[in-house]
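Q: What would this complex look like in 3D?
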Amino acid sequence: AQKITQTQPGMFVQEKEAVTLDCTYDTSDQSYGLFWYKQPSSGEMIFLIYQGSYDEQNATEGRYSLNFQKARKSANLVISASQLGDSAMYFCATRIYNQGGKLIFGQGTELSVKP
Amino acid sequence: DAMVIQNPRYQVTQFGKPVTLSCSQTLNHNVMYWYQQKSSQAPKLLFHYYDKDFNNEADTPDNFQSRRPNTSFCFLDIRSPGLGDAAMYLCATSRSRDRVYEQYFGPGTRLTVT
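A: Here is my prediction, written as structure tokens for the whole assembly.
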């Protein structure tokens, strides 16, 4: 069964510094995708970045990049130049195709950016 | 520009009083999902529609029902809410069930049961 593990319940980072949020996954599928979502206190889940298992390059989207290490089964999110607005809960997730494409989430990491 | 809209944003209902949450989308996506997210937990899927085909998760209580009258709209009905059903309810859409496509979420409805 697929499983996502986020081992950092909470993280602090100084404004303008970079931060890495950890994610490890367990799947028996050969082909899979990994997603990161941001959830501010307002509750909306905001899609940040996607990495496919066969993608040779790490995904990047603006200040977000994904450090994908397939052999270690890790997909860490790197946020560069942190901003106060980055303070939120961050979820790593994967989709399960043969179960309707549902998202399986990790437990989340709460990121706090200090001014 | 809102793509996935949920109404209401906040809903208070009484124990046992039926409640309906709504979701609409302007993306014309085939798949719509309902997730339940309790405090300090990750979202958990309740069910989804692939076009008109309804798919229930095995552990979703019978108290929860859903309707999708057309592509754009999907409703979550809670027949007899209990205190344990207080949560954030998130609607999401996706172009397909394939693993490469992201899901787009609405802002959620925060349900309180008194």
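A: To summarize the key features: The CA atoms of residues 2 and 29 of chain A lie 9 Å apart. The two ends of chain A are 41 Å apart (CA to CA).
Q: Very helpful, thank you.
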